Every structure is written in C-alpha cells, then in structure tokens.
Amino acid sequence: MSALLGTLGSISVMAQSTNVYSLNAVGYINVSLEPGFNIVSCPLIASPDNTINTLLPDTNGLYRHFQFWDWNPSTAAYTEDIGLGAGWASGGTETLNPGQASWLYNPSNYVVTVTFVGTVPPGTNSVTLLPDTFNLVSSILPTSGDIVTNSLMNFTNAVHLDQAWIWDPVGQAYTEDIKLPAGWSADPIQTNVGGGFWYYNHQATNNYWTESFSVNQ
C-alpha cells in the first residue's frame, strides 16, 4: 500500500463482515483544475456511482459554465455536458470510472480544486486500449509517476510506434512520446493522480493495461 500513501488522503482499511470478510482501502484525492482544459480521472469507486452528477454535483453553481467532454474511442466522438449552475445540461449521467479519463474545461481564471471520495479498486482490473485509434485513459489506481516502472501501474506491453500524448494543463499544450525499439522517445509516460493521457494503440488488436491492488501491498 506504500505506493498509494503519498497520494490518497485519509487512507484507511475497512472491514465489512457478513458471511464473508473483506478489506477495502478507502480515502480521497484532491484534483486541481487549471483555467482552461484539463484531462481528469477518478481512480476511486464512488458511492452510489461514478457519474459526474455524483463526482461533480452542480447543485450549488460550483460548476456553472464548466464543460465535460467524454471521449468514445469506438466512435471517435465526444459527448458534451455543460454545468448550468443548477445541474448538468444533459443530466450528468456521463461516467468517470477508474481507468477512464475525460476533458473538463474550467472557465474561470483561477485554479479550482475538486475532491473525489471512494474505494480503491481491488483485485486485478484492465483498461482496454482499442486498436488503431486514440484512447483517453488513466491509471485505475490512485498512484502517480512513470507507468512503466511504478510497481502498481506496471505497463510493459507497449509495442513499436505506440504513441502517448500527455497534456500540460498549465501550458495548455501536449508532449508526445513514441515507443521505439530502444524504448520511449522521451521519458516513459508520466501521469498524476486524477489525471490522464491519450494513448494510441498501434496493434491490430486490443491491448490491455492491467493493474492489481490488494490491501496487503
């Protein structure tokens, strides 16, 4: 669990006992939204769900004029929702599940901090990287750093000419990273908790970014 401690606030282990005894790591993360476009993710299982209505409730006007852009790699198209100040225009039913990333536009001229609360996804889970297209993804787990060498993220099955595009929300610009025979063209992909990146899978079939976590780690 040590790889999560620096990023997951108020981490605790909860025992829930009925006929089965289970342990879950729960806590919160703070995500800073720079003015302009941000790629965001929620690497926690929220309650009752991971819709933006739950994660980003716009009942008090906090997200008025914010724009949420959900990418569908199967259709290569966005679904847009806009904060009206009394709820989301399209109902706020879009999801932000662990492993999924989306755009969130902050229309203000100052940094806005949002807090996500939930359970760390337990067991082994995978992000599907569709072939010959761009996938907007994030780590399933609330951890940060180099996705190749981080023992929790452990993404080692990239192939030649795969591409990663990392967004800088401060500079509002991309950094490109390409998988070459000798390794990645820049530093291996770096990601932050609550962030994400574009990944182009150069294979002809699905690739899978698989991560595993248990409270004993």
Polypeptide structure, described:
This protein is mainly beta and 217 residues long. The protein has two domains: 27-118, no CATH class; 120-213, no CATH class. It is 4% helix and 44% strand. It is built from two helices and 16 strands. The protein has helices spanning 2-5, 52-55, and strands at 9-17, 21-33, 36-41, 67-72, 77-82, 101-106, 112-119, 123-129, 134-137, 145-146, 163-168, 173-180, 183-184, 190-191, 197-200, 207-213. The protein has a five-stranded antiparallel beta sheet, with no helix packed on it. Strands 3-6-4-5 form a four-stranded antiparallel beta sheet, with no helix packed on it. It has a three-stranded antiparallel beta sheet with strand order 1-2-7, with no helix packed on it. Strand 11 (163-168) and strand 12 form a beta hairpin. The longest helix is centred in the N-terminal third of the chain and has 4 residues, at 2-5. The chain starts with a helix and ends with a strand. Mean pLDDT is 89; it is low at 13-22.
Low-confidence stretches: 13-22
Let me know the number of strands: 16
Q: What's the alpha carbon Rg, rounded to whole Å?
A: 17 Å
What is the N-to-C succession of helices and strands? HEEEHEEEEEEEEEEEEE
Range of helix content = under 10%
| Gap from first CA to last CA | 5 Å
